[in-house]
Design a protein that fits this description.
With 422 residues, the protein is α/β, with parallel strands linked by helices. The chain has 13 helices and 20 strands. An 8-stranded mixed sheet has the order 2-20-12-15-11-3-6-7. A hairpin with a 5-residue loop joins strand 17 and strand 18. Helix 4 packs across helix 9 and helix 7 packs across helix 11. It is globular, with a radius of gyration of 23 Å. The model has no long low-confidence stretch (mean pLDDT 94).
Length: 422
């Protein structure tokens, strides 16, 4: 009886928005999936979802507003005095336990030929370490160096959370204190077809997709970890992806720079390889920090150079950013805009057949972390060397692959052993 009432209420809600087709396979579902799809329907804010569908696709947009280049500090060109000033300011914050690391690890390693969470992928070539292990070593080294407690927050996804937690348990948390490693799930939104209709996943329930790396702030808040950070006295949180084996996770210079310049964030950048490299770059728009996507930037801007011959818009955003807890809390409360992207999405049709489209067939809605920069009055930009802090694993071969990342990682370790890395 209760099941019938819940079904009828769900159906009534769906009919209001022209989405009743989503229950077409209901009778074939087992009890667990029946409960799941009813709960999904209960929790969907259809008014907001329809508004998102009606928003113009933001994956390609014209750049509007007054755009100028942004000031930056080149880490390699700091004088000894400047370096020590920034370092000592940041060192003090870290030693006092005011620093945390957050790794965004919600993806699977599909493009790397791995069916497990991406963070479990081993870089190979004689180095039998997973991405998680490499990152954990960076944190542990800093803990010992600064004699500090540095908690590690890891954003997973509904898809890989269980496997990620089991991987850490199997590896005894890589020697990290259990209580200092916190997992939380990334947010999700339903996918819609090009007519604005919900679609079913391969199991017969509503198909969901992660809400992008920009959703990290709301997910932190929703899971109670902003309050956890505040209880611990955390002031600075370094946020980056799991797939950069050289990410400088604990950087006193980044902290010292923000404090010295009076900003609530530091974004790390590397110089663009060429004017046409397809990366977002830091700039200012209407006086506030901004990242120009490669789809936005004009050819004239991409090729513009300063008096020294450097690209005027050449500071690539590499998804390694430091935020003050005040900024994180504010961004979480005010929320970031969604962007709409076309995706190829497998789905179950009304006959129970699994359809694997050859072309994009649905919209995914996601937030981008760099949209958070516009909420800041200003932010510090720290230019770092690509070979020191940026070795991503995005592709199975070629550029930004395990081979290139591994070579960069090995070279980094050799230079570090020789004392060539600060």
């Amino acid at each position: 009886m209760v099941e019938n009432i819940e079904y009828e209420e769900a159906l009534k809600k769906l009919k209001k928005y022209g989405q009743e087709h989503i229950l077409c396979r209901y009778e074939y579902l087992d009890d667990e999936r029946k409960e799941k799809i009813i709960n999904q329907i209960k929790n969907i804010d259809f008014d907001s979802l329809i508004d998102l569908f009606n928003v113009t696709n933001k994956s390609i947009k014209k750049l509007e507003g007054n755009v100028t280049n942004i000031d930056f500090v080149d880490k390699e060109k700091l004088t000894k005095e400047e370096y020590e000033t920034y370092y000592n300011i940041g060192k003090k914050e870290i030693e006092q336990g005011k620093y945390a690391v957050l790794t965004m690890a919600g993806g699977q390693g599909t493009r790397l030929g791995c069916v497990a969470p991406k963070g479990t992928f081993k870089i190979g070539g004689g180095i039998e370490k997973s991405l998680f292990e490499v990152l954990s070593e960076t944190i542990k080294e800093a803990k010992n160096k600064f004699n500090a407690r540095i908690p590690w927050y890891i954003m997973t996804s509904r898809e890989n959370n269980s496997a990620t937690e089991k991987f850490f348990e199997k590896n005894d948390f890589f020697g990290m204190p259990y209580e200092d490693v916190k997992f939380f799930k990334q947010g999700e939104l339903p996918m819609l077809d090009f007519n604005g209709k919900l679609i079913l996943d391969e199991t017969g329930i509503i198909k969901l997709a992660s809400d992008g790396h920009g959703g990290v702030f709301e997910s932190l808040d929703k899971n109670g970890y902003i309050e956890d950070m505040k209880r611990r006295g955390i002031e600075w949180v370094f946020i980056s992806g799991v797939d950069n084996v050289l990410a400088g996770l604990v950087d006193p210079i980044a902290v010292g720079l923000a404090i010295k310049e009076g900003t609530l964030a530091t974004g790390k950048s590397v110089v663009k390889r060429s004017p046409d490299e397809q990366v977002g770059v830091f700039c200012k728009k209407n006086g506030r920090p901004y990242v120009i996507e490669y789809t936005e930037i004009t050819e004239e801007m991409a090729n513009a150079r300063n008096e020294e011959g450097e690209l005027l818009y050449g500071e690539s955003h590499i998804l390694t950013n430091l935020f003050n807890i005040k900024a994180i809390e504010d961004i979480a409360q005010n929320k970031l805009p969604y962007h709409k992207a076309k995706k190829k999405a497998k789905y179950m049709d009304e006959n129970g057949e699994i359809i694997k489209p050859e072309n994009p067939n649905a919209y995914k809605y996601e937030k981008f972390i760099f949209d958070a920069f516009e909420s800041l009055d200003n932010m510090s930009i720290l230019r770092v060397k690509r070979e020191d802090e940026f070795a991503p694993l995005k592709n199975s071969d070629g550029e930004d692959s395990p081979d290139t990342a591994r070579d960069l990682y090995i070279d980094f370790l050799k230079r570090k052993e020789k004392g060539l890395i600060k």
